[in-house]
Automatic annotation (TrEMBL):
InterPro entries tied to this protein: DUF3515
UniProt name for this protein: DUF3515 domain-containing protein
Organism: Georgenia satyanarayanai
Domain of life the protein comes from: Bacteria
Length: 159
């Protein structure tokens, strides 16, 4: 049965999302090397752009080297995994920061690291995110933490 899954996964078309403007940043290569081979029950897929990763069908996608967001009023969440802590902007579907490739008919969740250089974007299709789409971010935290943290989320009580 495992051989059949591998054979089917090998026939899947490559993940085709555009590379981010800073995709050539050497840190992105380190992030991609540290990513898991399986995410949310989906196997890693082949890619068609630099500094991109994808898992399963429909693909959960990760792009390293996207534009670093400035200060924002978007919902900012901190995801912790062991000693790892990464801040993410959780974007609404109609937010102007959501890239075109993330605007799906059935919806998706889009997350962009906050305060990290280079920035990382993760898009989780609704049908793959279940009740906890942020669980994917926990599984990616160790790899994403290889980027440099320059700022952190602050709450209303922090100002």
């Amino acid at each position: 049965m495992a051989a059949a899954v591998v054979a089917v996964g090998g026939c899947a078309s490559p993940v085709t999302v555009p590379a981010g403007p800073q995709a050539a940043d050497p840190v992105c290569a380190e992030v991609l090397q540290a990513l898991p081979g399986e995410l949310a029950g989906g196997q890693e897929r082949s890619i068609a752009s630099q500094s991109i990763a994808g898992w399963g069908e429909p693909a959960i996608t990760l792009r390293c080297g996207v534009d670093v967001p400035g200060p924002s009023t978007e919902r900012c969440i901190t995801v912790e995994s062991g000693d790892t802590s990464v801040d993410w902007l959780a974007l609404e579907a109609d937010d102007e920061m959501v890239p075109d490739h993330a605007r799906r008919e059935n919806g998706s969740w889009t997350f962009i690291t906050y305060g990290r250089v280079p920035a990382v974007e993760v898009v989780v299709p609704t049908e793959r995110g279940g009740d906890q789409p942020t669980g994917v971010l926990v599984d990616l935290a160790t790899a994403v933490e290889l980027t440099t943290a320059e700022r952190t989320c602050i709450g209303a009580d922090d100002v």
